[in-house]
Structure formats: C-alpha cells, structure tokens
Amino acid sequence: MSSVLFVCLGNICRSPLAEAALRAEAERLRLDLVVEFAGTGNWHIGEPPDPRARAVAARHGIDISGYQARQVTRADFTRFTHIVALDHDNLSNLRRMAPPSAVAELSLLLDHVPGREGQAVADPWFGEAAGFDVTWAEVTAAASTLAARFRAR
Ligand code: 4NP
C-alpha cells in the first residue's frame, strides 16, 4: 500500500493542510492510502494546527482541530513510500537525515503540480491570514494530482 508523509518546518501550518487535502481526496476516490504529516522542527510537538490553518480547513469542510504536531523520525523513511516536503529547506534536511535503509521517495509538494515543479510552498506562518488561502490552493492542487497518480497504480 502507498503511504505519504507531508513534512514542513513547524508542523502546524502547511503539512497538516496538505494531509487534510490528500486525505479528503483519497476518501472521495475511495483510495486505500495512509497519509500523515510531520515537522522537521520540534517547537510545536503535541500542539494542534495554527488557528488560521484550522480556519481555512474548516471553510473547506474539514476539521483538523484534533491534529497533533510531531517531529519526523528516521523510522519514517522506511514506514512511508513517499515523503513530500513543502519547501527546499525541509527537503534538504530530510535528505540529510535519511538512513541508508530509506525506501521513501522524496519530493517537493509542488513537483506534483504541473507547471510548478521545483517550487516551494511559502510558509504562511509569518504573514497575513490570506496566505493560508494560497497554501490551501497549492496543497489541494497537489492532492488532486497525487491522488490521481495513486489511483492509476
Ligand atoms: P509550517 O509553519 O512549517 O508551515 O508549520 C511554521 C510554523 C511555525 C514555525 C515555523 C514555520 N515556527 O518557527 O515556530
């Protein structure tokens, strides 16, 4: 079975939204897919997503208030078939921590959106609330192509 881990920095803004978007799309298509999210940073372990992330998800009918942040572990590289980083810094950190036994295929989230390959999902944490709508649009675009790809397997 395929499994996808989304990874950002704080684990309270972008990766929970990416998880929520792909989980919703997988449920819609009745895909058997494991989806989780984690952060490379450790500041927010155990915390729920940022209120602005919870609000954008809620506006799209998804409740992520029960989510809890966790940090990426080396075991994730063998547990997941795909690890998807939200930006380049997180991708480099993942490459650095990958054990020799890693099986997960690493990519950037926007590599999965035609025309946006190689680009980063900007961190909305430091900006205006509207940034979370941009994040939502990006993660739903990626969720749609990722789900289609897993469906075709
Ligand atoms: P995220 O955003 O990586 O999308 O969850 C951030 C949230 C918090 C922090 C950094 C990024 N922080 O430094 O606490």
How would you describe this protein?
The chain has a single domain, classed as Response regulator (Rossmann fold, 3-Layer(aba) Sandwich), CATH 3.40.50. It contains 5 helices and 4 strands. It has helices spanning 14-28, 51-59, 76-79, 88-97, 131-151, and strands at residues 3-8, 34-39, 82-85, 105-108. It is globular and about 40 Å long. The termini are close together. The mean pLDDT is 97. 4-nitrophenyl phosphate (4NP) is lined by residues 8-14, 43, 123, 125.
Number of helices: 5
User: Percent helix among the residues?
Assistant: 25-40%
CATH H-level superfamily title: Response regulator
Which class of secondary structure composition applies to the elements?
Answer: alpha/beta
Strand order of the largest sheet: 2-1-3-4
The CATH class is identified as Alpha Beta
- Gross morphology is globular
The first-to-last residue Cα distance is 10 Å
Domains, number:
1
The biggest sheet amounts to: 4 strands, parallel
Report the sheet-strand fraction: 5-15%
Radius of gyration: 14 Å
Number of E strands:
4
| Helix and strand run | EHEHHEHEH
Name the average pLDDT: 97
Give the cofactors and ligands: 4-nitrophenyl phosphate
In short:
The protein is an alpha/beta fold. Helices cover 39% and strands 13% of the residues. It has one domain (3-152): Rossmann fold (3-Layer(aba) Sandwich).
List strands and helices in order, with pairings.
Elements: E1 3-8, H1 14-28, E2 34-39, H2 51-59, H3 76-79, E3 82-85, H4 88-97, E4 105-108, H5 131-151
Parallel strand pairs: 1-2, 1-3, 3-4
Helix pairs in contact: 1-5
This protein binds 4-nitrophenyl phosphate.
